[in-house]
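[#protein-structures] MJ: dropping UPF0391 membrane protein SSA02_15480 here for a structure pass
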Amino acid sequence: MDLLRWTIVFLILALLAGLLGFGGISADFASIGKILFFVFLVLFVLSFIFGRGRKS
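AK: finished. structure tokens for UPF0391 membrane protein SSA02_15480:
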């Protein structure tokens, strides 16, 4: 869940920087947020797939 939290933080920072007129920094924050989201998505799917084989 930490990756998802960091993704939200970077996207909020991108929106805030864009609102204040810092276009370059806003694009960088958005790119970092997008990368973190896709890493989170891949790890979530992998843990879902590999976690299904175990029964408690």
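MJ: nice. The chain is about 85% helix and 0% strand.
AK: one more thing. Residues 40 and 46 are 10 Å apart (CA to CA).
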